[in-house]
Automatic annotation (TrEMBL):
It holds the Pfam family Aminotran_4. The modification N6-(pyridoxal phosphate)lysine is found at residue 196. SUPFAM superfamilies: D-aminoacid aminotransferase-like PLP-dependent enzymes. Pathway: Amino-acid biosynthesis; L-valine biosynthesis; L-valine from pyruvate: step 4/4; Amino-acid biosynthesis; L-leucine biosynthesis; L-leucine from 3-methyl-2-oxobutanoate: step 4/4; Amino-acid biosynthesis; L-isoleucine biosynthesis; L-isoleucine from 2-oxobutanoate: step 4/4. NCBIfam families: ilvE_II, PRK13357.1. GO terms for biological process: isoleucine biosynthetic process; L-leucine biosynthetic process; L-valine biosynthetic process. The keyword Transcription does not apply. This is Branched-chain-amino-acid aminotransferase.
């Protein structure tokens, strides 16, 4: 199936925001990608069209039963003006994994990857130049059959929108304070925690709100059954460095398999730093902390790449991690390496980046 992507042009161009006013996901570019699905034609009519509001029947299924999935990746501009994507084939593969779990028809990964490349190419002037900035790419699929019957939708829209985003850090990595959630749960075995479906985020807001009220930045989720084993942070996977060894929770069907997580594991292996995926209890982490063996904790995700954790609050225990470290951490080293690869500053021995031309 070789579908040509139609381009519907516009002369109306928005003013681009100043680099220091970017924030995250507040500004959108002039074009978007759209493709439709129905039972007769399958996925059809891939097109790049002017960015504009949608007109949807109030009965479309996404509004009622939440059949919606998304992805997140970034385009980076190198010093010499090239445009790079970081492992985008992983994002389209994960989109299909999400499709499968959410009863959405499979997409042609090649067409969607091609669409992302063409859209970014057309909008490359929107990629900001300043250190740490990038163009965030948000592919998503929504159920658009107008029907209140509960069944998988028979119609969908796949869209890709682009947003220039600011630097996550102002100069150096800023440690976050994390609340270990032991009341609410995010996901359970057999559920949808391992895919990027919108409802996972809707379900997480209450705990995030609670953590913020208590003065924390984000939530660390425990397993949904025993509330004992570590899963992940809001939109990041989590890593612990204990006695020189790095450990991260094993993908168990309720944790999202982050692409940054995978990249960190690969990089550590490449550096011959011991790393393992395992079932880890919060008790073990606390014990390591009490023994002085918990050297580092950090989150991984597309938005921040690496986010060091300065404090973990679990019930009455406060774990202050790597107090007074002078920036000479493994988290820093990983951050430097991955962002250097993303920006074309370092060699890319893993072939993670794809240049758009
Ligand atoms: C997207 C996401 C992550 C991070 O995945 P990356 O591919 O590294 O960006 C982690 N956890 C959740 C719940 C997510 O939705």
């Amino acid at each position: 199936m070789n579908q040509v992507i139609e381009l519907i042009k516009t002369d109306v161009k928005k003013e681009k925001p100043a680099a220091n006013a970017l924030g995250f996901g507040k500004h959108f570019t002039d074009y978007m990608f759209v493709m439709d699905y129905n039972q007769e034609d399958g996925w059809h009519h891939p097109r790049i069209t002017p960015y504009a509001p949608l007109v949807l029947d109030p009965s479309v299924m996404v509004f009622h039963y939440g059949q919606a999935i998304f992805e997140g990746l970034k385009a980076y501009r190198t010093k010499d003006g090239r445009v790079l994507l970081f492992r985008p084939e992983k994002n389209v593969a994960r989109l299909n994994l999400s499709c499968q779990r959410m009863s959405i028809p499979q997409i042609d990964e090649e067409i969607v990857l091609d669409a992302i490349k063409q859209l970014v190419e057309i909008e490359k002037d929107w990629i900001p130049n300043e250190e740490g900035t990038s163009l965030y790419i948000r592919p998503f699929i929504i159920a658009t059959e107008p029907s209140l019957g509960v069944h998988p939708s028979r119609e969908y829209k796949l869209m890709v929108i682009l947003s220039p985003v600011g630097s996550y850090y102002s100069d150096q990595l800023k440690p976050v304070r994390i609340y270990v959630e032991d009341e609410y749960v995010r996901a359970v075995p057999g559920g949808v925690g391992f895919v990027k479906t919108s409802g996972n985020y809707a379900a997480s807001l209450k705990a995030q709100e609670k953590a913020e009220l208590l003065g924390y930045d984000q939530v660390l989720w425990l397993d949904g059954v025993e509330r004992k084993y570590i899963e992940e942070v809001g939109s990041m996977n989590i890593f612990f460095k204990i006695n020189g060894e790095v450990v991260t929770p094993k993908l168990n069907g309720s944790i999202l398999g982050g692409i940054t997580r995978d990249s960190v594991i690969e990089l550590l292996k490449h550096w011959n730093i011991p790393v393992k995926e395992a079932k880890i209890s919060i008790d073990e982490i606390n014990q390591a902390f009490q023994k002085g063996e918990l050297e580092e904790v950090f989150g991984t995700g597309t938005a921040a790449v690496i986010s060091p954790v300065g404090e973990l609050k679990w019930k009455d225990t406060t774990m202050n991690i790597s107090k007074g470290n002078n920036g000479n951490t493994l988290a820093n080293r990983i951050y430097e390496e991955i962002t250097s690869i993303q920006l074309g500053k370092a060699e890319d021995p893993f072939n993670w980046t794809i240049e758009i031309k």
